[in-house]
Design a protein that fits this description.
The complex is a heterodimer of chains A (about 210) and B (about 475). Chain A is an alpha/beta fold and about 210 residues long. Chain A has one domain: 3-Layer(aba) Sandwich (Rossmann fold). Chain A is about 30% helix and about 20% strand. Chain A has an eight-stranded mixed beta sheet with strand order 4-2-5-6-1-7-8-9, sandwiched between helices. The N and C termini of chain A lie far apart (about 65 Å). By secondary structure, chain B is α+β, with helices and mostly antiparallel strands. Chain B is built from 15 helices and 18 strands. Chain B has a five-stranded antiparallel beta sheet, with no helix packed on it. In chain B, strand 5 and strand 6 form a beta hairpin. The chains are: A alpha/beta (about 210), B alpha+beta (about 475).
């Protein structure tokens, strides 16, 4: 009885939290704060979208597999709302025309050049500052400690951090709140880890939009 | 009109002490020719051990074995007074350094903003204490009276002409800012107080002491106009600090640098302006100066931010020899517009503004490290964008044909047997006028591993390998 009294939680908040499994689909869910823009993905994530103020790790077998296609709806939504995003040491040049076709407003995209050593520092600064809404980075030799620093910085600054890593890193544990692996040929999304909920067992189809090939 | 006089009785000494590492030890300023060195000023510690201004240096050495000596520098005093005038300029547009050892400013027009006077006065005291200058403040209806009263007592505030007359009547002739000869003569004549002087026959006073004395008295009472030059802030900031000993480590340079930048901040606040670029000159013995430039993309004036940036640059710089002096020069002083913020800002108050973060990143990663991309009006992928240091809003239409999101720095041959063409070709043919001629057919390919590639072949080529130029990531 003592335990029950100590942990008084409003039932509504508990029930509206998607992390509680109720055996049947919830009737009305609150609008997610950071929808991914991909309905199928939103449906399986406990937050109904990206985790706020946390690190999201994207595991790629190769560059150009669709990692940006996954993020572009979010980035377009953020930049159009006037929030700044930062891209720290990208592996290629972001081609403005391609991003603008997806609706990203380049007036709110900040790019940062850095060598691999400084890139981690720069990512951490960007995440911690709190003035950016999302930070994209490519930590190459990031170990568990470096990622944990980024996760803490994202939490402190209230910023969404997206880190892109090689698919081989999937075996290693990671402090990221959400880990999504993108599998190639045909491209599918696989949620490896989502904090606070059991990761879905099945992967989601993620075909390239036909418009990109039109 | 109300005039406040800030009397700086120890300006030369304070100028030295404020950047001295041990101001609590005995220190004296010396002046005079080499044969007859005398103490020009002594700090409180030196005074406690028995040193006095006006003593011969030889006598001082006989009294006390150990004290620091610094050469008294007239230019230095002028510099500090100009610096304080620049500081005072933030409180009033009418500031003058025409009165000896003092800054005089008109505060009647500033009272609504900074007043009432007791609060204003407290603010002035706080500022001067923070800057490290001992001072006395007095308020009077005219500048000359304020100057005389400040010499008498700290904190006198006489707003009404009638009270001023009473107060001036009681001022001893010896403290009335008359030249020494006149004061002595008047004293010998039995005139001890200004009140006696005011009622003395004017004609005979003028006969004995010249018009200068009468003019001084009339101006003090506000009966005659008192013309003087008002201070005008300079358009550049130049501060030089001579270090008491050679410094070899950049860590030890931080202390004088922090002071110099705090002074720059005070100067900028007085101008209500900002600084975009400033240069730290580190002076060495027998070496050319090391110059450390600190440049920002937009004007800033917050001293802590400027210090942070300068520290970032200083830590990166190589210092070839011990540093003897530090000079801070700021030439570009654009107007400063503080960033507008929303009243109900949803972001937490601890969040660092982007401009601050950007400068911090630039300080460590290099001036060009933070940039933005803007689309350019060109069909060639290599020229379809340009780097800008600040983001620009573009209204140019978006390309209709598919464009990748990643672009390779330079095209490479696509080594993938299993790729198939998804779309294309799209001909890009341009640049014949500037030598960067491009004639290509671009295709969208899907590789065997599921990537979408943007690759091209030269126009008319059939069996050549595709050149990979981007990814539809």
């Amino acid at each position: 009885m003592g335990i029950a009294l100590q942990s008084v939680v409003a039932l509504d908040t508990l029930l509206s939290d998607r992390r509680v499994w109720r055996g049947q689909p919830a009737a009305a869910l609150p609008a997610p704060k950071q929808p991914t823009g991909h309905a199928a993905l939103d449906a399986v994530l406990p937050w109904g979208g990206w985790p706020e103020a946390s690190l999201t790790e994207l595991l790629l077998p190769a560059d150009g597999i669709g990692e940006l296609r996954l993020l572009l709806p979010t980035l377009a939504r953020l930049t159009q709302a006037g929030h700044d995003i930062a891209i720290v040491a990208p592996p290629y040049l972001p081609y403005p025309d391609g991003w603008r076709q997806a609706g990203v407003d380049f007036a709110h995209v900040q790019l940062i050049d850095a060598n691999p050593r400084d890139a981690l520092w720069a990512s951490e600064q960007c995440l911690r500052a709190g003035c950016l809404s999302a930070v994209l980075s490519w930590p190459m030799q990031a170990d568990d400690r470096a990622l944990r620093r980024l996760q803490v910085a994202a939490d402190t600054g209230g910023t969404m951090g997206f880190v892109f890593r090689d698919a081989r890193a999937e075996r290693n544990p990671s402090p990221a709140a959400l880990r999504i692996a993108i599998d190639g040929a045909p491209t599918r999304l696989r949620v490896v880890k989502c904090r606070g909920a059991v990761a879905p067992t099945h992967s989601l189809p993620f075909p390239a939009a036909p418009s990109a090939a039109a | 009109m109300s005039w406040a006089c800030i009397l700086l009785p120890r300006l030369a000494l304070d100028g030295v002490l404020r950047r001295h590492p041990h101001p609590e030890r005995p220190l004296v300023l010396v002046t005079g020719p080499a044969q007859k060195r005398v103490l020009a000023a002594v700090n409180p510690a030196a005074e406690r051990v028995g040193l006095r201004a006006g003593q011969a240096l030889a006598a001082a050495h006989a009294l006390v074995s150990e004290f620091a000596t610094v050469e008294y520098d007239v230019d230095e005093v002028t510099r500090w007074r100009d610096f304080l005038a620049a500081w005072a300029y933030r409180y009033s547009s009418q500031v003058t350094t025409a009165f000896e050892d003092a800054i005089v400013l008109e505060i009647g027009a500033s009272l609504r903003l900074f007043g009432p006077w007791p609060r204003f006065e407290r603010q002035l005291h706080e500022d001067l204490d923070a800057l490290g200058f001992s001072h006395r403040i007095a308020l009077a209806p005219n500048p000359r009276a304020a100057w005389v009263l400040a010499g008498m007592h700290d904190g006198l505030a006489l707003a009404q002409p009638s009270t001023l007359a009473t107060a001036l009547n009681r001022v001893p002739v010896s403290q009335a800012r008359l030249d020494a000869k006149t004061a002595r003569a008047l004293h010998a004549m039995g005139l001890r107080r200004l009140g006696q002087l005011f009622v003395a026959p004017r004609a005979s006073l003028a006969q004995r002491f010249g018009m200068g004395l009468l003019q001084h008295l009339d101006r003090m009472r506000g009966d005659a106009p008192d013309p003087f030059d008002l201070y005008r802030p300079p358009d550049r900031f130049d501060l030089r600090l001579e270090l008491p000993y050679d410094i070899e480590h950049s860590q030890a340079l931080l202390f004088p640098m922090r002071r110099a930048i705090a002074d720059l901040g005070a100067f900028l606040a007085g101008r209500d302006g900002g600084v975009q670029r400033f240069v730290l000159h580190l002076e060495h013995e027998g070496h050319p100066n090391t110059e450390i430039a600190v440049g920002m993309l937009s004007a800033e004036r917050e001293p802590s931010l400027l210090f942070d940036l300068a520290r970032g640059r200083l830590e990166q710089a190589r210092i070839p020899a011990p540093v003897r002096g530090l000079r801070l020069v700021a030439e570009e002083l654009p107007p400063f517009v503080p960033a507008g913020r929303e009243l109900f800002d949803e972001r937490s108050s601890q969040s660092m503004p982007w401009s601050t973060l950007r400068e911090r990143l630039r300080a460590r990663l290099g001036d060009d490290a933070v940039y933005a991309l803007a689309p350019a009006d060109d069909h060639r992928p290599e020229q379809a964008w340009r780097r800008t240091s600040l983001p620009v809003a573009t209204k140019s239409p978006v390309e209709a044909a598919p464009r990748p999101t990643w672009l390779l720095q330079r095209p490479i041959p696509l080594r993938d047997g299993g790729s198939r063409i998804v779309a294309g070709p799209e001909r890009v043919e341009s640049g014949w006028w500037d030598g960067g001629d491009v004639r290509r057919d671009y295709y969208v390919l899907e590789t065997g591993s599921g990537q979408r590639a943007w690759a091209y072949r030269g126009v008319g080529e059939i069996d050549t390998p595709f050149m990979l130029h981007g990814w539809f990531a």
